[in-house]
């Protein structure tokens, strides 16, 4: 995906922000431990990434010393971030609001995440000692909740909590690319890697030439299997490419091995049985993750997908609103928000902010939505599940653009 993006963006081996090209090589050399984003995005257009991950005005002033020249060609992305547009207006208001918000609320998120991590290993150890299938299933669910809670941390600079995302064979670096760089910036478009990575088994793009009646029916039948095998396919793919092509394995891939190791060291089970139970835990975690994640916000016939009519105002923030329907049944609990991808729309707009802070932003969010004639839509989980399956069946693009009357 990054290789193709480098070809499409034509950033001439540099970093593009709006219509200017920058060379951040010296910055990377001076900050080798905190420049993951810059290392991976060399040769690409990082306009949306830069704006969404920096609320302060300071970075915009600092990068001027790294500017090389103006870009030769126009951006290929039609999304805009005008100073008087929706996103920049909301961003200014959020920046002011953050000065009055009690940031200690983030401690609640930290405590929930640590509690989930501790509960996961306790459940894993007890399940091994008791040889209980029910406890193994619970352990898989706890692994799922822990890695979803870890998602709260991996849009920021490197921190130990984000690496708990690796507990179920996932890799935080790979998901930073597919999720943070791709999906978060361009949801439900052809640039959204998370939209295409489930094809041909699950296809949400409305296209009657691709989605035959047989393939649509088949997706319903194989959906449970896809959910259960997603994590295993992810690690298998990375192992295959690491052996045959370019190494994409990291030291923190070994974090997932702490689960079978803890089972082996605290019980009288053989290593083979521990590995078998570990695979069961991973498959349960994978199934739960997909049930939650694929029905969290982005797939419904009323949500914009590639091929649908677009809003006349191509503001990046409005595009995010058009590709999301929030979960209405999570807002009363920070635990549910952290473990079920809650506060989804605000999280997409300001991914570096802790989920505990997002509820305080709703008054100005609603105010700005009204000003730009947009709306935050909300469904409960059952409605999301129903809508996601309706989207799997949909082949006709919406001719009515979002926001139109």
Automatic annotation (TrEMBL):
Gene3D superfamilies for the chain: Cytochrome b5-like heme/steroid binding domain
Keyword Cytoplasm: no
Any GO molecular function: metal ion binding
Keywords: Heme, Iron, Membrane, Metal-binding, Transmembrane, Transmembrane helix
Keyword Acyltransferase tagged: no
A GO biological process held by the record: lipid metabolic process
Regions crossing the membrane: 111-128, 134-154, 248-266, 278-297
Cytochrome b5 heme-binding domain boundaries: 5-72
A Pfam family reported for this protein in Swiss-Prot or TrEMBL: Cyt-b5
General function of this protein: May play a role in muscle cell metabolism.
Similarity comment: family membership: Belongs to the cytochrome b5 family.
Protein name, entry field: Cytochrome b5-related protein
UniProt source species: Glossina brevipalpis
């Amino acid at each position: 995906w990054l290789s193709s993006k480098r070809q499409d963006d034509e950033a001439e081996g540099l970093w593009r922000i709006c219509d200017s090209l920058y060379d951040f090589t010296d910055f990377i050399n001076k900050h080798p431990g905190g420049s993951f984003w810059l290392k991976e995005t060399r040769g690409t257009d990082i306009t949306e990434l830069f704006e969404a991950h920096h609320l302060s005005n300071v970075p915009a002033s600092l990068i001027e010393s790294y500017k090389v020249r103006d870009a030769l060609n126009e951006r290929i992305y039609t999304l805009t971030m005008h100073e008087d547009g929706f996103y920049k207006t909301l961003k200014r208001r959020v920046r002011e609001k953050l000065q009055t918000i009690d940031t200690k609320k983030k401690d609640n998120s930290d405590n929930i995440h640590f509690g989930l991590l501790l509960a996961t290993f306790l459940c894993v150890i007890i399940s091994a000692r008791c040889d209980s299938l029910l406890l193994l299933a619970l352990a898989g669910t706890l692994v799922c909740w822990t890695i979803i809670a870890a998602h709260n941390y991996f849009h920021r600079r490197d921190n130990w909590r984000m690496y708990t995302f690796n507990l179920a064979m996932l890799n935080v670096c790979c998901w930073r690319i597919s999720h943070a760089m791709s999906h978060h910036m361009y949801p439900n478009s052809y640039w959204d890697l998370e939209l295409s990575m489930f094809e041909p088994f699950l296809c949400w793009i409305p296209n009657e030439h691709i989605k035959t009646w047989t393939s649509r029916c088949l997706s319903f039948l194989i959906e449970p299997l896809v959910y259960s095998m997603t994590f295993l396919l992810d690690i298998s793919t990375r192992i295959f490419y690491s052996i045959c092509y370019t190494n994409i394995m990291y030291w923190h891939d070994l974090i997932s091995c702490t689960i079978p190791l803890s089972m082996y060291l605290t019980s009288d089970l053989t290593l083979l049985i521990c590995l078998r139970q570990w695979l069961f835990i991973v498959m349960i975690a994978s199934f739960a993750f997909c049930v939650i994640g694929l029905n969290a916000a982005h797939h419904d016939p009323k949500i914009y997908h590639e091929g649908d009519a677009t809003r006349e105002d191509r503001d990046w923030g409005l595009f995010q609103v058009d590709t999301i329907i929030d979960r209405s049944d999570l807002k009363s609990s920070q635990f549910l928000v952290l473990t079920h991808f809650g506060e989804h729309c605000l999280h997409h707009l300001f991914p570096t902010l802790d989920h505990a802070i997002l509820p305080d932003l709703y008054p100005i969010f609603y105010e700005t939505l009204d000003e730009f004639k947009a709306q935050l839509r909300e469904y409960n989980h059952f409605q999301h599940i129903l809508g996601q399956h309706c989207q799997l069946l949909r082949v006709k693009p919406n001719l009515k653009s979002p926001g139109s009357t």
